[in-house]
Design goal:
Layout lengths: L1 E4 L5 H17 L6 H4 L4 H9 L3 E6 L2 E9 L4 H7 L8 E9 L8 H16 L5 E7 L3 H9 L3 E10 L4 E9 L2
Parallel strand pairs: 4-5
Antiparallel strand pairs: 1-2, 2-3, 3-4, 5-7, 6-7
GO molecular function, one term: acyltransferase activity, transferring groups other than amino-acyl groups
InterPro entries: Acyl_CoA_acyltransferase (IPR016181), GNAT_dom (IPR000182)
Pfam families: Acetyltransf_1
Length: 174
């Protein structure tokens, strides 16, 4: 697998991948990414594409994974991470998504591993990757822990615009 930055003209591909994941989430009786199904994520996609902060994972030039990965803390990140300040350079990972038909193959784990290598090579030495995950999403919490992320805390009862939940906080350190 190779990591590359998404290009501005790939906005539709990013949106379609996120919509596919949002539909899979909805089919599991969760409203977590329901705003994506209504195209409310498009301004966010455009924002991060403009900052070269959306990344694809590719196998044989086929995009199989996407995520946002950025240094600039958003209001969301500040709310979740305010009790965990650091002077170490950080990247914030959000919206990790696999393409339709790619789940259940270990590709999310592979993507995270290759992304970590990419960060080591392309960002300041020692840069952390931070992410959050709804506490009750056992499978995702296990994925992050098995991919070298360590749980560093939990922010209780945060409203993400769709639902109120406890969010586990994870860091990966090179």
């Amino acid at each position: 697998m190779e990591i590359r930055k998404a290009l501005r003209h790939e906005e539709t591909l990013v949106n379609d991948m996120l919509k596919g994941a949002a539909l899979r989430i909805k089919n599991k009786q969760s409203e977590q990414w329901s705003n994506i199904l209504e195209d409310k994520e498009l301004p966010v996609i455009r924002h991060w594409l403009g900052k070269d902060s959306i990344y694809f994972g590719e196998i044989d030039q086929q995009v199989i994974a996407v995520c946002y990965l950025y240094q600039e803390m958003t209001d969301w990140d500040r709310e979740l991470w305010e009790q965990h300040p650091t002077d170490t350079p950080c990247l914030y990972l959000h919206k990790l998504t696999l393409a339709e038909g790619q789940t259940g193959k270990g590709l999310a784990h592979k993507f995270l591993s290759v992304l970590q290598d990419y960060v080591k090579l392309n960002f300041e030495s020692g840069t952390l990757i931070r992410l959050d995950c709804i506490g009750e999403k056992e499978m995702l919490n296990q994925l992050y822990q098995s991919s070298g992320f360590h749980k560093v805390g939990m922010t209780p009862q945060v409203y993400n615009g769709v639902l109120m939940a406890d969010f586990n906080l994870f860091e990966w350190r090179p």
